[in-house]
Amino acid sequence: MDAVAWSEIVRNWAIVLGGALGLGLAFWRGMAASRQARASRDQAQVQRREHATELFNRAVEQLSDERLEVRLSAVYTLEAVTRDFGEFSLPTIRVLQAYLTERTSEHHEGELSADLAAITEILVHASHHPSS
């Protein structure tokens, strides 16, 4: 074989090896990007749950406030938590039911306050639309 034929063979093998190396690197980078995306998604889920927990806890604390507007804001925050964070639906409904029970036992006569009326409306809606 002459030098030209050998250089063709070497060149062709170099192209094949370079292509294989390129495919290997592309696969490795794809796997690394996939792991990074999964880690980012998991971190976002953790942050979302922490945010929901913080909203829930703050709103529950505000239910005991003396000011009606603060309690009403807490009720509507809990409604939003129920709607936006499905895993908090049952605990939120139970908190609202307990709050309603406690507060209505304290008020034997007259109309419900705005916060209790809002809770009643939310609970009625939840019983008719359990998935929303």
Give an overview of the whole structure.
With 132 residues, the protein is an all-alpha fold. Helix 2 (68-84) packs parallel to helix 4. It starts with a helix and ends with a helix. It is rod-shaped, with a radius of gyration of 31 Å. The mean pLDDT is 89. The chain has helices spanning 3-62, 68-84, 89-106, 114-128. The longest helix has 60 residues, at 3-62.
Approximately what portion of the residues adopt beta-strand conformation? under 5%
Q: Uncertain runs with pLDDT below 50, 5 residues or more?
A: none
Fraction of helical residues? over 70%
Number of helices: 4
> How many DSSP E strands?
0
How would the global form be characterised? rod-shaped
Task: Write down the Rg.
Answer: 31 Å
Helix and strand sequence:
HHHH
For the biggest sheet, the summary is: none
The end-to-end distance, rounded to whole angstroms, is 78 Å
Return the structural class: mainly alpha
Overall pLDDT metric: 89
In short:
The chain is mainly α. It has four helices and no strands.
Summary keywords:
132 residues, mainly alpha, 4 helices
List strands and helices in order, with pairings.
Blueprint: H1 3-62, H2 68-84, H3 89-106, H4 114-128
Helix pairs in contact: 1-2, 2-3, 2-4, 3-4
